[in-house]
Write a structure and sequence with these properties.
The chain is built from seven helices and eight strands. By secondary structure, it is α+β, with helices and mostly antiparallel strands. It has one domain: Muramoyl-pentapeptide Carboxypeptidase, domain 2 (2-Layer Sandwich), CATH 3.30.1380. A hairpin with a 2-residue loop joins strand 1 and strand 2. The longest helix is centred in the first third of the chain and has 15 residues. The radius of gyration is 19 Å and the shape is globular.
Length: about 240
């Protein structure tokens, strides 16, 4: 009995103090996040979110009912990919209340922090100023402009930046809702929902373009099993 009590105490202490290295990545990546303490992510605005609920989840539950710790369930590949294991979607799992706290809880709140930048072709796009997303995307633009002309066809016209909307086929908000994502030219892109004749990984986006986005804190939807190769979103915690 005494041994069982010790085990139970250790388990309880683990659950309620479980601020691991991934939690620290969040603290280091976002100004809006103050700390992780007693298994909670503490925001600068005073909000607090449970970090790890210690529940076992299947893939659908991970997508639709994740905790914050679940966002790190799959390591984002730092290497080039040509295929991925089934349901391996690093970065596609998002704890929506955290993103609402960081960027805005409504379309109007997000809009108050939007700014306009010039894309590679000179067109104007709107992104958030929160967390320096606008500065990161300007750095991306500067590097993309240095690429040879053969890469430009993949970059514009862009598919979109800010739009408050849910992800197709779900009730989950897209990161586009927060002004922290950009879709490049749809013409040369592939999306898993468009796949005909059964699932097969497809991609035309060159590695040189992906490398530039990743260098400045954006992950790529082409490194998801449920691929979305036009899509880049600001997720620096996944790249640490």
């Amino acid at each position: 009995m005494k041994r069982l009590l010790i085990v139970a105490t250790l388990l309880t202490n683990f659950i309620y103090s479980n601020c691991d290295s991934n939690a620290q990545k969040l603290v280091d990546s976002y100004i809006s996040i103050k700390a992780c303490k007693n298994n909670h992510i503490i925001m600068q605005n005073g909000e607090s979110f449970l970090y790890n609920d210690s529940k076992s989840k299947n893939f659908n539950t991970l997508l639709n009912q994740p905790d914050i710790e679940d966002m790190f369930r799959f390591n984002y590949p730092k290497y080039w990919v040509k295929s991925l294991p089934k349901n391996y979607d690093p970065g596609r799992i998002r704890y929506e209340p955290l993103f609402r706290s960081i960027y805005g809880n409504s379309a109007n709140e997000v809009k108050r922090n939007l700014t306009t930048i010039r894309w590679v072709d000179g067109s104007l796009v709107k992104v958030t100023k929160k967390e320096g997303v606008d500065r990161a995307l300007r750095a991306v633009v500067a590097d993309l402009k240095r690429l040879p002309a053969k890469y430009k066809k993949y970059l514009y016209p862009i598919g979109g930046t800010f739009k408050w909307r849910v992800i197709a086929g779900t009730k989950r908000l897209s990161v586009h809702s927060f002004g922290a994502a950009i879709d490049i030219n749809v013409k040369y892109s592939a999306y898993w929902r468009w796949s005909k004749g059964g699932y097969r990984y497809r991609n035309q986006i060159p590695k040189a373009i992906v490398d530039i986005f990743e260098r400045h804190g954006f992950i790529w939807g082409g490194k998801w099993y449920h691929y979305d190769t036009m899509h880049f979103e600001y997720r620096p915690e996944m790249l640490r």
